[in-house]
């Protein structure tokens, strides 16, 4: 990138390139010209300089967003494509490729995350979902303070214990101080509590968020969490449940499916076929996540699969240069899923 390029010029170029990509790109990767524009400069000494100066942040979008189908979670209108938060928190699930974490951290600076949120809004994505580490939350708050409208569905990471104090305090901060629009029980917590037979604590955590007047959901990797919530009539408003098939080169072999999810071999939905059958009977909205198995399944394959088989929304982790094409692909997948067996539940 030229050193004299301003932040405003760069953002305008990013939005233009993304719009062009939605109309004409047939592959996920950016064009060679875009790749050259995004490549960092090297100094005379050979050191890489950041492609974007970190001291300025992108302004929220002002153009009319592209149309994106929406559903209802409680009273909240939520785009059927939700921006996933892992790339924004720099957690890539990149198996044993540890350098990818550092690469993502250096690419997704605060300014770049703001550009990504702006592009998401530009393409009709009205919601982002993530957990609540302090640094990424500060970035979200700053974007909102600058005028960003994207909604937040956040899972608190505070421990869920008998007195629920730490968890309730974190929910209060997210809703009352930060304006978070929906809360859900973090899948890591829900999986562990279910395995220990402590679904009563999951129910209490759901109720804690409900008391603050926002939609309250349950996240999980383990399908047993959904089954137990349904059996015990836990009063959650929605589910955020992993969903992807295993037909990718690095996918797990049957004998490797020992846990609800695993980093290497990488899978996050152990029983996709049974998930389809169980969710058919679930009347609450279902937001599917890890739909591309952390990047192993192409979006052209992943999006039709999850919507055809019953998901109401899909959380999709994306870099800025992937948003335009992915938004176009997901609109097509939703349109093609009109005759799916599970009715739309949102």
What does the secondary structure layout of this molecule look like, with pairings?
Layout: H1 7-24, H2 32-38, E1 70-73, E2 76-79, E3 81-84, H3 99-107, H4 110-122, E4 127-131, H5 134-145, E5 151-155, H6 165-177, E6 182-185, H7 187-195, H8 199-210, E7 216-220, H9 223-232, E8 238-242, E9 262-263, E10 266-267, H10 272-280, E11 286-289, H11 299-308, E12 313-316, H12 323-336
Parallel strand pairs: 3-4, 3-12, 4-5, 5-6, 6-7, 7-8, 8-11, 11-12
Antiparallel strand pairs: 1-2, 9-10
Helix pairs in contact: 1-12, 4-5, 11-12
Description:
With about 350 residues, the protein is of the alpha/beta class. It has one domain (about 55-335): Alpha-Beta Barrel (TIM Barrel). Helix content is about 40%, strand content about 15%. The chain has twelve helices and twelve strands. The protein has helices at about 5-25, 30-40, 100-105, 110-120, 135-145, 165-175, 185-195, 200-210, 225-230, 270-280, 300-310, 325-335; strands at about 70-75, 75-80, 80-85, 125-130, 150-155, 180-185, 215-220, 240, 260-265, 265, 285-290, 315. An eight-stranded parallel β-barrel has the order 3-4-5-6-7-8-11-12, surrounded by six helices. The protein has a two-stranded antiparallel sheet with strand order 1-2. The termini are far apart. Mean pLDDT is about 85; it is low at about 1-55.
